[in-house]
């Protein structure tokens, strides 16, 4: 069970985040004072940090820089500042992701899940294929099947829930979170192309369609 450390000075938001994360199966912790926040974070040894930028007496980006001098723990900036410049600055300081308030809870949980997976360092597999998200490839022996960004997002979500139905709405939410326009027809096209690539890799009928429900990765 992953431990998430919340650095947020707004009490109502902090409590909402604690409840959201606990309901999602995470262990969550949040300080109520902000003296020496970087030291508290390092002592807590979390698996991921949700870090606000605007904190009493200190800027979250300064805290991030202090954290980065001692640990590479994943950090997602959660802030009301949503300009491209703020996002670029946070990422250049070492943040792994950035989400603006007000955020959609589903989107935030997807971002957290994605960052934790990227940081885990574990090699994921599907049957006889190894998954390389950085290259966007499924690798079997010396053969590589290259997936588009959207195909990889769809495949990873199906793999996360292998054997379960993943609805079209859930898939479209994940793709929308990738900041790319997606509609129902575009999702159908991406599913068809992914299914064809898996077929070419020897995985016949890997994705099952459940009419009016969604898709299952077998």
Task: Describe the protein.
- With about 220 residues, the chain is α/β, with parallel strands linked by helices.
- The protein folds into 2 domains: about 120 residues, Response regulator (Rossmann fold), CATH 3.40.50.2300; about 90 residues, Winged helix-like DNA-binding domain superfamily/Winged helix DNA-binding domain (Arc Repressor Mutant, subunit A).
- It is about 45% helix and about 20% strand.
- The chain contains 8 helices and 13 strands.
- The strands form 4 sheets. It has a 5-stranded parallel sheet with strand order 2-1-3-6-7, with helices on both faces. It has a 4-stranded antiparallel sheet with strand order 8-9-10-11, with no helix packed on it. Strands 4-5 form a two-stranded antiparallel sheet.
- Helix 2 packs across helix 3 and helix 6 crosses helix 8.
- It starts with a strand and ends with a strand.
